[in-house]
Structure formats: structure tokens, C-alpha cells
Amino acid sequence: MKKLFSLVVIVSLLAVFAPVVSAAPAAQGQEYIVTAGDWLSKIADKYLGNPLAWPAIMSATNTKNLEDSTFAKITNADLIEPGWKLWVPSKEEAEAFLKTYDPSKPELLFGKGAKGQLVVGSWWTAGGEAEGLAGMFKIYKQKYPDVEIVNATVAGGAGSNFKAVLKTRLIGGAPPDTFQLHAGLEVEGYSPEQYLEPLDDIYASEGLETAFPKDLLTLLKYKGHYWGVPVNIHRSNVMWYNKAIFAQNNLTPPTTWDEFFAVCDALKAKGITCYGLGNNGGWEAGHALEDVLAGTCGAEKYRGLWTGATSWTDACVTQALETFKKMVGYANTDYPALDWAGGAQLIVDGKAAMFIMGDWTDGYFTSKAFTGYGWAPPPGTKGIFVALSDTFALTKKAPNPENARNWLKVCGSKEGQEAFNPQKGSICARTDCDPKLFNAYLQSAMVDWSKDAIVPSVMHGAAAIESWATDYKTAVNLFLTSGDVAGTQAALQAACVKAGACK
Ligand code: GAL
After folding, report:
1. How far is the CA of 478 from the centre of ligand 1 (A)?
2. CA separation for the pair 503, 100 (Å, rounded)
3. Residue 15 clears pLDDT 60, i.e. is over it
4. CB distance 426 to 364 below 8 Å
5. What is the pTM of this model?
């Protein structure tokens, strides 16, 4: 207690004196102890005469931290805490840094370990995703303590913002070492032969061809090579529901669309939103529709939509669009403002009864310590598993290729996957993970994965090339406002023709 008191006194004395003593920029740079109410740009303004110079303080502090752990490690510029020791560089050093700084390259904000950095690009910033990734980083750090891991995330589910940033970096010749890539045709959009390294040697050295199921290996191969090491299997078609709402209203989760709408009518009469939706990322509605398409057309015909074997003019597509339009009619009206996590939060808060979204939602619920949820396949999709898989790829111009190769080995390992998936809300891509590490939902997903008809997700890179997935997404977003079933169906058919899959 006494110790704590004196620490408080010292910190408060520093708070009082530090700015007064050292407000003039020191020629050599100087230490600074964070006080309550500080933020980086305020400190940058005060000591460097430029609030926009905060990245120079972040970078300088993180570099110091690698040699001297009494300096803080700043992983998020918005989160600095009273008592933290920072290093404020001189004005000249800060200016020199800012000349080379590029906000799309977060690695510049971190120092280099004795063995350099590992720059990992992904869009995993939401609850569950972030924890899963941190779990895998922990394993890597235990094995390679001298490597500084840089978590180069760009927020936005399904990579809605990340993919564009990554493409610019790839084309500009300054990519991260490794990045999140969906298994399947998404890789085509990154011109892999030009920008990525084939990973066949890692598959061989790590025995990955025997670790993953055959169908997944087929999905992973593009132009004769493996371009990503899968960390998981996700399921797109899950209908999450708030158990309390169903119990309090004497309702059971629907298994058919008729039942779904009957539940919606019953809840609407009581002023409760039955279908929770968030479409702020611009892909979430497209995600829900892929599940409705699978449930309405059936596994075989749904698969055919992406190969040209089923025409988009088919009656099941008309029916799916009609159903989806009706669903949206029951959704919360603020859906354009909510992203997928905002939609999931409606279930947590008891503000909506049902939510159709991939099983990263299970990771989200777990991260919020929310247990009052149930799950079921959306109507029509019992026995169908709309699948996707996240992998990590290696860029040709990776600044730290050896570190990146070691990362990919962790990604493919049992240890890495067991640290990642229970928090991420996905099941292992490997077939040998211990089911006991997973919660009841994920155990049920494992069973379904082993026996259901597996069909590919379009909104998450498995079913179609990126440009087709984008055209599909655009058509669905227009549909939300137009409600034009015939026009949307024609646009979806045109997208298939454009992609070269339909005549
Ligand atoms: C998917 C990705 C998942 C999850 C989701 C929401 O595209 O495969 O891992 O992160 O986006 O961000």
C-alpha cells in the first residue's frame, strides 16, 4: 500500500513537473511519463510542435521498448496509460521519420527484434477474431521470441477494407510478409504468380497434405500450387437466436421459411425485431442471401450456380430473392448503420431474436461472455454446410521471408490451430484437433462438417473469383433499396455471364 502510495506521488509529481521541465524540444529526445488525460497527438503537439507527429513518438517508444522494457509498448495509438514511459524523439528525428511514414504500413510504428519483424495482415479486429489471432501470436512468440510481431489489421469484416489496402501494397512492392486469404478462387484476384510465393515446400515439410481433408486441399490448389496455409473452417449458414426471447414468447426456432415468418409475425405483434441485420460492411446482406440460396435451391443446384450448371434464371433464385426481400421487411431498420458485429450485438442485447451470419459470431459471443444463444441451420439448409476457410499467404516481396515461413508453419500446426480456433469460433482445418477444447456449438460444427454436403461460400472467397463476388454483392445491395426481384435476378445472371461461367 505504502509502495503504491509513493508510486502515485512520484507519478503525480512527474505529472506536475514533467511538462514544465521539458516542454522545449530536447536536441537528443527525451523520456516522457504519461499522465491522466494524455494522448499521443497532444504530447506530439506539445513537444514536437505538431499533433500529427504522434507516429514518431509511437515508433521511437516501441523501438526503445525492444532494448529496455521499462519503456512502454504502444500497440494502439489511442490507448496509452498514465505511468507509461515514452520516448519523445528530437524534432529533427521526428521530421525525418515522418518523411518516410506511410499509414498503410503499421510496421513502421514498431521496432525490429533481433530477428526482425513478422508483419501479419488481416481484418481480424472484432471480438473473437482478435482474440483468436492473439492466441496464435502467442504460440509464435514462444517459439521465436526475437521476432517483433506486427499486427497489421485493417478493420472491416470479410476484408471489406483490408483487401483494397493489401492490393495497393502488393502492387506498390511493399507488402506485409503474410496476409489473410480465403481458400478458393479469391486468390485469383491477387495475381498469385506475380505477387505470391507458392507454398508447396511448406506443405511437404510440414506434412500438410495428410493433415487437411482432401476436399479442402482441392479448394486450396490454384494453377497447380498451394498459395495459402489454412488455419480454420468456418460455416456461413448459421441462424443464431436469443434463447430468452424464444422462451418468453413460447416460440421454437423455425426450420422452414413458413415457420420463420410465423415467428416474425408473432414477435412483430409484440414489438420485437425478429430478424437482426447489419449491412454496414456492404457484404452482410450478400452473406445472408447465399445461405437463403443454398436453402432454397439445395446443395447440388446451389453449387451449380457457381459453375454454370444451374442458371441464375432458375425459379429457385426467384424464390430465394422473394424470401430474402420478405426477411428484410422484418429486420431492424438501422441495418445500414450496423456491421456484422453490430448485428450480433442485437442478439446479445436481446434487441433481435434471430441473426444469420457465419460462425465467427460464436467467437464474438464468447468474447462477450454471452451464453444465452442457440443455433440452427437457416431454413432449408439442414444437412448443408456452406463453407469457407481462412488461410495465410506469403508475399513474394516479404521483407522477412524466413519469419513468415515460420509463421505459416505455426498456422498449419495442431498447436497453432488449437490456440486459434476455439476463440475464433471456427473449427480446425486439420483433422486431429482435440474436440474437448471446443464449446458445444463448435463441436456440433465438427460433426456437421464431417457428414453434411459441403458447398462453397461466395461472400468469403470460396465459390467465385473476386470480381464476380463483387458484382453479386453490388446486385444484392441495390436489391435492398429497389426490392426489384426480376431486375436483380437479371443482374445476377449478367454477373455470371461476365465472369464467364454462364452463357
Ligand atoms: C470472413 C472471415 C472470417 C471472419 C469474417 C468477419 O471473411 O473469413 O474469418 O473474420 O470475415 O470478419
Report:
1. 23
2. 50
3. no
4. no
5. 0.93
Q: What percentage of residues in the chain have a pLDDT greater than 90?
A: 94
Q: Whose CA is nearest to atom 6 of ligand 1?
A: 157
Per 3-state DSSP, the chain is made up of helix, strand and coil in percentages (nearest 5) of 50, 15, 35
With H, G, I as helix, E, B as strand and everything else as coil, classify residue 386: strand
Angstrom distances, CA of residue 348 to CA of 89, 126, 276, 342, 343: 45, 15, 11, 10, 9
- Find where cell 447465399 sits: 290
Residue 369: exposed, middle, or buried by beta-carbon count in 10 A (0-12, 13-18, 19+)? exposed
Q: What are phi and psi of 282, to 5 degrees?
A: 80, 0
Substitution site in 460, 466, 473 for ligand 1 pocket (most atoms within 8 Å of beta carbon): 460
Average pLDDT score, the chain: 95
User: 354 by DSSP, 3-state: which?
Assistant: strand
- Closest ligand 1 atom to Cα of 426: 9
Residue 168, classed as helix, strand or coil, is helix
Task: Give the mutation target among 279, 360, 392, 421 for probing the ligand 1 site: most ligand atoms within 8 A of CB.
Answer: 360
Residue 243 CA to ligand 1 center (angstroms) comes to 25
* Nearest C-alpha neighbor of 107 from the set 73, 149, 145, 65: 149
For the CA atoms of 328, 329, 334, 337, what is the dihedral angle to 10 degrees? 20
CB 58 within 8 A of CB 106: no
26: which DSSP letter? P
- E strands, 399-468, in order: 427-428, 453-456
Q: Sorting pLDDT into bands at 50, 70 and 90, what band is 497?
A: very high
Virtual CA dihedral for 217, 223, 225, 231, nearest 10 degrees?
Answer: -50
Phi first, then psi: give them for residue 495, nearest 5 degrees. -65, -35
Q: Which residues pair with 153 in a beta bridge?
A: 122
Q: What is the pLDDT of residues 89-114, one digit of tens each?
A: 999 999 999 999 999 999 999 999 99
As a three-state string, the secondary structure of 221-266 is EECCEECCEECEEEECCCEEEEHHHHHHCCCCCCCCHHHHHHHHHH
